[in-house]
Amino acid sequence: MNQEKEIKAHVIVENFDYDSLPYNESKGVNRPVLFTGMTPVKWDDEFKEIETTKKDSGWYDYNNKKWANAKTSDGSYWVWIPRYAYKITDGYYSNETGTIDIKFLREETSVSAGNTIIETTGYNPGVKDTSMHHFLHPAFDVEGSELGFWVAKYEPTAAEGVATITGDCDPADDVSTKTIKVMPNATSWRCITNSNAFDAILSMKNNPVYGWEPEEVDPHMLTNLEWGAVAYLSKSISGADTEEIWNNAFYKYRTGCSGTEVDAASEKTCVEYNTLNGQKASTTHNIYGVYDMSGGSWDRVMGNYNNLPATNTSGFTEETLLNINSKYINRYFTKTEDLLGGVGMAYDTNIYGDAVYETSYDAARHNGSSWEGTTAGSWYGDASYLPQASGPWFYRGGDSGNNTNAGLFNFSNSRGCADIYYSFRPGLRLAS
């Protein structure tokens, strides 16, 4: 068995574009895993895109908010999130916006450049938690993501085009057979159920348009933990840090847009991604980050309450939901009771890394789908509504009309239905 593991590691080194080892000593992070057909990209001082190579020392620099970007053969854009540990140094379990300290880790270990002690188990709020210790982010404790993962730079569109812009949903968009494409200045793909979005991303694996080999890559719908990993990296000195991410406030749901100010809503102008103000809508406040995570469309993620599919709305049945591999979904189970209504709460406080409990105040009280009352339970005043039986799916980020309620630390619930306000986001892992 040990011999087989050594052979598999050798294949990874040869086939997935490492120079020699997965860890880049000079950059202090794990190298991006370049799948076949992936081309590194960067931008010049005038924000003109340049195709480059993995040997370009200027391709990425996480110490200077320059996250690694690459394109697949179809022109879709991806951003690399390298393995790290984190500590919430201020604002833990609070709606007062705090700070996060990131330690990038070497290969698949818990070793950081400064040899900070990194915890990997035993999280317990108030006893041993991320306000006291650096913990490995659990998104990297998943098969295929041990070195890091790629996230779609923008909310996806469909290569064949999307039928719905505004108004009522066109049923032509509620399919899993269209080809996902990730690009700026495109109408985001909405009006699709959770199940069809999940299946559309899985089908990317065997689609030759992306240029990769199916055995290399594991495309999947972003999990709630992966959303948290991107949000936490953005809140560190490697990301936008103390600057709040500006909303994509364009009312026609175009990818990569910014509003005219941080909390703009429902604007008729798209401030494009490669302008000075447009870049403030990325997770780095420059062109190298991830866009459409604040405003734009809601991002459906694979985070579910009590294995409830919301049959006939999400597209999943109880059987298909139960059969989903745990690496593709974060499952949340009733932990406490809502003292006001007697309704089971979705949130287990022993879950961390998802930008929910750690970055909100008394999240268990923000239960339901109503926008009445106190909504600003999360950092930056973002809305905080937990999933429940009638809305068992996590949705993230808010939409173009949500002003101060939108943001990376926003979470809400839904039935998973096809809706004009909801899009989704692919991620890529190393196939295992």
Order of helices and strands: HEEEEEEEEEEEEEHEHEHEEEEE
Work out the helicity level: under 10%
Care to count the β-strands? 20
- Strand portion: 15-25%
Instruction: Provide the residue-averaged pLDDT.
Output: 90
* First-residue to last-residue Cα separation: 16 Å
Spatial strand order of the main sheet:
4-3-5-6-11-20-14
General form = globular
Number of helices: 4
Radius of gyration based on Cα positions: 20 Å
Going by helix content, strand content and strand pairing, the class is mainly beta
Q: Could you explain the architecture of this structure?
A:
The protein contains four helices and 20 strands. The chain has helices at residues 2-15, 194-202, 224-234, 318-322, and strands at 23-24, 29-30, 39-43, 49-51, 69-71, 77-82, 84-90, 99-104, 118-119, 134-136, 148-152, 157-158, 180-181, 217-221, 298-305, 330-332, 393-396, 411-414, 422-424, 426-430. The strands form five sheets. It has a seven-stranded antiparallel beta sheet. Strands 15, 16, 17, 18 and 19 form a five-stranded mixed beta sheet that branches. Strand 3 and strand 4 form a beta hairpin. It is globular and about 55 Å long. The relative contact order is 0.15. Residues 1-18, 337-344 and 364-374 have low confidence and may be disordered.
